[in-house]
Predict the 3D structure of the following.
Amino acid sequence: MAWEVLRAVDERGAYANLLLPSMLAGSGLSTRDRGFVTELAYGALRAQGTLDGMLDTATSRPVAGIDPPLRDALRLGAYQLLRTRVPARAAVATTVDLVRATSGERPVRFANAVLRRVAARVSETGGDLAQLLDAPPFATDPIGHLTAVCTHPRWIVEAVAEALDGDLDETRAALVANDIRPSTHLVARPGRITRDDLLAECVEAGLDAHPGPWSPYAVRLDGGDPGRLPSVASGAAAVQDEGSQLVALALAATPTVGPDRGLTVDLCAGPGGKAALLAGLLAGGPDGAGLLALEPRMTRAALVARSLEGMAGAWVARADGRAAPLAPASVDRVLVDVPCTGLGALRRRPEARWRRTPEDVAALVPLQRALLVAAADLVRPGGVVAYATCSPHPAETSEVVRQVAGQRPELSLLDATRVLTDVSGSDVSGGDAPGSGVTGAGNGTDSRAETGAETGVGVGTGLGLGDGPFGQLWPHRHGTDAMFVALLRVGPR
């Protein structure tokens, strides 16, 4: 089954985190066997570059030239030898059996020889990746060293190091966190279920659950299937990373200046998680503002509609955010969660680090800039734009924001670290919208807009976000995806 996942990823660009759960659901495998299959499939995908490097040392044939079905079997065998407790002899034997079953008898001797050499190398080096891959010394080439031992492409290591201001210890910790299986995060959608009730439901279902440390609506699960929960089945709760929740909370909590028009827009709404949370937060505010969610693709627009089903004052429209069916300067707030490389969710998408390339960044940045410009055009003077990405790459985050803001004198940066810290400290165990979100969603100027949030002086003490003005979350610091958010005030044009 793990081999089938690797083949689907390679042959048709499947997403392992979507494919494997559906395969396991009807497999009849025991819990232990499901865990082993998951470890093999996700682990081999995450470590693909490292495994190919190991195989390169064991054969004179270039790994890229090996027949793909055989190559995927060898990767699974090498992963077992490197990262599991399966005895070397058993790992080699079962992989050879897999090769025989999937590729025939001809490559069996080759596979057996390659895997025996890999097993010998792992035994000789104690599994030390620096030795196995002949990595450059950390002292002379730290990026090259981390590329080898942390199983990431060099360009991603460079981007993470840049985002962390060159702190190589933090860079290592961030890369290591991408290889740790994340917990499942749930959101208790305001107005539909309280977090306390969601926690009680988890306990009743036998799930190991606890409150999320940052979002007042978050619940974290240590294993188990959230689809068993009635509230998830009904849409009152949903699977949503806690970092994603904080983005929506930050926009709802940031006060506008001047009379509101009563409308917030989610410019890139699919698949709908942030839109549903925003709609609940806005409906719970003093003025009951509405939400318009835009999504150009039919299938994703349908997902947004499902997320917003039954929520008053929330609508979905199929439209490109760059050409929204709205008048300029007509809305109070816009969330623009732009399409991005997804480098902030590598722990959830095991194949993504090897699928993405630097060219993807170059192709996405013009779209990201155009969407931010469109968002700024829609917002009235005194309103707020939240620019978000699930990527820490500076080219997709701070550089996009600074470039657009530098060309638009009516835009001023707010301190997202202060707002994120405020919303993460809210107490809403009873299920109402957080106090900061309620005051922010109303009319007029909140006192914070005249102090830290407006001056660009960061506090960020609770979340450890640094000096601002941008908010960058990290798996190794916060246990969330590496979400980025910037908040901008639109001034007089």
Residues 235 and 310 are 9 Å apart (CA to CA).
